[in-house]
């Protein structure tokens, strides 16, 4: 069965939305295989976001992601990678569709980085790489 890495980012944890986000994931029928609260360090985050190095939002992104605890989830289900990204909605919370996590709960704070509550791996290869980083 397919697996993905889901992160509830520091804004989601700080805004007490962990339960609400987990409820949506569980209601959809995906299986929680492993779950932990972590304070990611810069080393982990720079590996996780290696593809964004050099982009204007890279430094604010790392700063935001290390600003507080994150919930890391190993999530399983049929087509869960695509399915979770659909549940999450598009990157920008302002235009993310209503009914999605980011569309319903995300706020645009007008900051240099989108504090958009969640992360989900975007391919099978990325999921394997990210799950190894966060769980192995
Ligand atoms: P994720 O990978 O976290 O699920 P995503 O695939 O929608 O999100 P990516 O393009 O991988 O987005 O970017 C990773 C994260 O960097 C985004 O979730 C967001 O927090 C931030 N980000 C991406 N693009 C921008 C941007 N143009 N301006 C500000 N922040 C951005």
From TrEMBL:
Cofactor field: Mg(2+)
Binding site for ATP: 9, 57, 85, 91, 102, 116
Pfam families: NDK
Known catalytic reactions: a 2'-deoxyribonucleoside 5'-diphosphate + ATP = a 2'-deoxyribonucleoside 5'-triphosphate + ADP
Keywords, ordered alphabetically: ATP-binding, Kinase, Magnesium, Metal-binding, Nucleotide metabolism, Nucleotide-binding, Transferase
GO molecular function: ATP binding; metal ion binding; nucleoside diphosphate kinase activity
Domain Nucleoside diphosphate kinase-like: from-to ranges: 1-136
EC numbers: 2.7.4.6
Active site: 119 (pros-phosphohistidine intermediate)
One record GO biological process: CTP biosynthetic process
NCBIfam families the UniProt entry points to: PRK00668.1 (NF001908)
Stated family: Belongs to the NDK family.
UniProt protein name: Nucleoside diphosphate kinase
